[in-house]
Amino acid sequence: MNTPMIIEALTAVQRAILANEAQIESLDRAIGDGDHFINVRRGCEVLVVLSPDLKGMPPGLALHKIGMKLLGTIGGASGPLISSFFMAMGQALQDTDEPDRRQFAAAFANGVEAIKLRGKADVGEKTMLDVLIPVSRLLLKLTEQGLPLPELCAHLKDEASRNMLATKDMIASKGRASFLGERALGHIDPGCKTCEVAIAAVCDTVLQ
User: Fold this and answer.
1) Scanning 84, 154, 171, 182, which has its CA 20 to 30 A from the CA of 63?
2) What are the backbone angles phi and psi of residue 174, rounded to the nearest 5°?
3) What is the value of pTM for the model shown?
4) What is the CATH number of the domain that holds 59?
């Protein structure tokens, strides 16, 4: 995952987020703050504009710049969390011009751990971590096994989708949805849907 691939992935994620606007907004209106999609869309737009400035940077620095930009762009509770993810990934990849799969998997895990620590949340609390943590663990496992890239990406997309759908049956203990109690049952977490869409877009970009 070099910097040109990161830039391509940013564009792909923006397209995918826009293509899923109706569903993400609907989910957020049901159990969220109502501004999740607006904030995510704003963040994607800013990163696409930032992309030319990232050219020539090593991946670690590019990811750090992305995190810093998002910190001042995305509002709501998700802003600091998502920015922490990118900055932690950047820190893990500093001084690495061409990260291999193991290095990228470790960096992704580092980013997910940053969200976990900052948000004081874990699996089973109906947050974006219900997708990110299982996907991160699977990525580390499959990378160690040396699975071919097409199979690895297919498994990651399936894992993201399965865990996103599983949030329907969860009662939230974090965020606005936690105030709804059992009324949040039957609804997918909007942050998990956003993460599922983004992970699928990145996987498809890598395969291209």
Assistant:
1) 154
2) -135, 155
3) 0.91
4) 1.25.40.340
